[in-house]
Specification:
about 300 residues; alpha/beta; Rossmann fold; Alpha-Beta Plaits; 10 helices; about 30% strand
C-alpha cells in the first residue's frame, strides 16, 4: 500500500513542556486513521505540525513521499479548529469565499453541499444552522479543493447522538470514495466504528499503533453461568484460565478452542449452561490497558 503520510521522530516542545515526543507513524492510502488520546495527549499539536500551522522542534514528515510544500497542501483538506463562517451569509456565499481563499473552483461547491446533505439549505444564513449542520458545512469547506486527504480534528465534538451518527456516516461515505482520512478524537466508540487503523497518544508519547481489526485478536474469553461450571472446567484442557466475577465464570480459552467446544465439554459432563457469552476485547478495554501500562512503566 502506498504511504500517504510518513512521520519520523516528530517532537514539539513549549519550554519545559513536551507536547509531542519523538513520534513516528505511517498512514497508508485509503485508510481512515484515528489518532486517539485523552485531552492534552498531543493530537491537535500533531495535526497542526502536519498542516504547517505549528512549527516543529525536531523530526520530519512527508506527504506522498515528498517534503511538505504549499503546493502539496492543496491536496489536503482540513478542519483543525471550528472554521469561522460569516453568520449573516448563506452557506453558498461562505463557501464561495473559502473557494477564493483556497484558489479552488467554485464548481466544487454544489457537489460538496450535496455530499454533506446541505444542498436544500444552501441559501439559508449560517446563523440558522444547528451545530451538526455547521460541522457538516465545515466538512464541505474542506472538500472544496477535492482533496486526496482529509484531516478532521474532533469532528463530532459537542454534537448530540444524532449529530454524531450523521458525521460518522458522512466520514464513511467520504472514505468509500477512496480518500484517506486522518481523524483525531478522544471518543473510543467513534474511532472503533469509523476507523480502519488507529494510534494511541498520551502526553505526547505513542503508546500503540495498529489496525482496528486487530482489537480482540488473541485469547478468547467466554462468560459462563452454570452450576458446578468452575469445578468441571478446571479439568478441561481447553481452559487456559478460569476466574469468578459477579457470579459468572470467565474462561480464557486455549488456542483453537471456541465457546462451542466449551459448551460441548460441559454437556458431556452433565452440566447445562444457562448463560454463555463470548467476550471480545473492545477498543475501550485495550485503550484503558494501554494507559494503565504506561503509568506502571
Amino acid at each position: 500500500m502506498e504511504t500517504v503520510l510518513s512521520i519520523r521522530g516528530l517532537t514539539k516542545r513549549y519550554g519545559r513542556l513536551t507536547a509531542v515526543n519523538n513520534l513516528s507513524l505511517e498512514v497508508g492510502r485509503g485508510e481512515v486513521f484515528g489518532i486517539l488520546g485523552p485531552n492534552g495527549s498531543g493530537k491537535t499539536t500533531t495535526l497542526g505540525i502536519l498542516l504547517d500551522v505549528i512549527n516543529r522542534t525536531s523530526g520530519e514528515f512527508s506527504w506522498f513521499g515528498e517534503p511538505p510544500t504549499k503546493e502539496m497542501r492543496k491536496r489536503i483538506g482540513a478542519i483543525l479548529e471550528t472554521p469561522i463562517f460569516y453568520p449573516y451569509l448563506s452557506a453558498v456565499r461562505n463557501l464561495e469565499i473559502v473557494a477564493e481563499i483556497k484558489e479552488a473552483s467554485k464548481e466544487n461547491i454544489e457537489p460538496a453541499l450535496q455530499k454533506v446533505e446541505l444542498f436544500d439549505r444552501k441559501d439559508d444564513k449560517f446563523r440558522t444552522y444547528s451545530l451538526g449542520m455547521k460541522q457538516r458545512l465545515s466538512i464541505a469547506s474542506a472538500l472544496i479543493c477535492d482533496p486526496e486527504v482529509m484531516i478532521l480534528d474532533e469532528p463530532t465534538n459537542g454534537l448530540d447522538p444524532q449529530g454524531i451518527a450523521e458525521i460518522r456516516e458522512l466520514i464513511r461515505r467520504i472514505a468509500a470514495e477512496g480518500k484517506t482520512i486522518i481523524l483525531a478524537s478522544h471518543l473510543l466508540d467513534e474511532v472503533q466504528k469509523v476507523c480502519t487503523h488507529f494510534c494511541v497518544l498520551k502526553k505526547g508519547n505513542l503508546l500503540y499503533s495498529g489496525s482496528v481489526d486487530e482489537i480482540g485478536a488473541g485469547a478468547v474469553t467466554v462468560e459462563v453461568v452454570a452450576e458446578k461450571a468452575p469445578e468441571v472446567l478446571k479439568e478441561w484442557s481447553g481452559a487456559k484460565e478460569i476466574k469468578l466475577e459477579n457470579g459468572k465464570c470467565l474462561v480464557t480459552l486455549s488456542d483453537n478452542q471456541s465457546a462451542v467446544d466449551l459448551n460441548r465439554y460441559l454437556f458431556e459432563k452433565g452440566v447445562v449452561a444457562s448463560h454463555l457469552l463470548t467476550q471480545k476485547k473492545s477498543l475501550e478495554k485495550q485503550f484503558l490497558e494501554l494507559l494503565a501500562e504506561s503509568e506502571n512503566a
